[in-house]
Predict the structure.
Amino acid sequence: MMEAVDIDSETRMAVDGSTEPPEGYRDPDISVAIRELKSPNHRNASIAAEFLFERSHTEHERSSWNKNQIRNEGGIPILCQLLKSPSWHVRYHACSALSELAFRNEKNCKAIVENSWALQSLVEMLSTTYTTMQEDAALVINNCAAFCEEACLVMIKHPGLVQALKALVTDGLFGAKNVSVGAINCLTRCDSAKKLLNDLKIVEEALIPAIQEAGYGEKYNARVCRASMAIANLTGSCYEPLTTISHYHTVAAMVEILGYSLEGKSWAGINFAPYSVLYPLRSLAYNPKHRKELIECGLIERIAETMNTWKLEDHRSRQVLLIAIDIANVLFKTPDYKGIFFSSGIFAATKLVASGRRDEGQGLYQNANFSDQNYPVAVWMGLHQRLGAKSQFQLLDEYVVGIILEYSFKGYKCN
């Protein structure tokens, strides 16, 4: 590790967990580092870029505030220019800083992809012979695509970018393959970009070869699973060539990953956001041939857990609930599996969504169409956010509600 800029280790400001910094918040060391990025001395510029990476890293207690400061003080355009530096160290640390600045920061993602230097430089770095540089460049694309849907279309349309990712997936070294598959997976979640990706034959020429390639180990399994997620996003299906990965059950792995994600745990060293896993699972749920396996792998229970543990965190939080409800609606129509719904706790979870007390948003509950004319209307009226707002039903705890729902949906009478 290169020497970092000397900083004052004393905590200047308490962190209260808020997204926005207190009025007037500013780290003077960051301002100094941004000025140092312009230094003609490559070593100084490299150290400054590395320092901004460290201040932006998720493990730093004020990372979200620091990322905003770096953007507001013009650090991102300078880092993008440094991607063309003649110094390998400067390019490497500038790229690392950009990947971290893009992580969970939509405005930073936009600032990166809208910069005239950035995308072409990233394409060139993907095509370099330095594996570490390839991985970092792919990670910038991965993070921009993961946290800013607008950025996806810009990147996909940039000449040579998708082709460079495809080349790494098929011909790159192990680490570069893994990150490139991850970047493509993030790009496939952009609805407006799917036709472009299909026209570029991303499934046939990159994703299917990725899962057909023999391998072993946790990181290999993660690559296969992310490639399968990307295929599901684009096609609504899941390829599993028996000759290469019959030992690895991708659908079951996706459901397992969702469980890890809901618990805030990493899987194969990757921290999957619930949205990124639910999105391909919904595509699979739309395909009748996958529904039985999804249910038997425990997806209904995971959907109930998604609803129960949900909290408003960012602009995609409500999309998580919408997708979860959509999956539940589709799977509820699967014959012979109603009993799993009764035992999963999903009805009580739906009641929690209906309450709106976690700021779920108006209209979300109305998307839960588990009821139809064959089921008790009174139960659903009692759970309805508006019609049942003053109902005694709303006063019951989840355990009692679960019993009532089970008896009601089985056609029994509650005396």
Summary: The chain is about 65% helix and 0% strand.
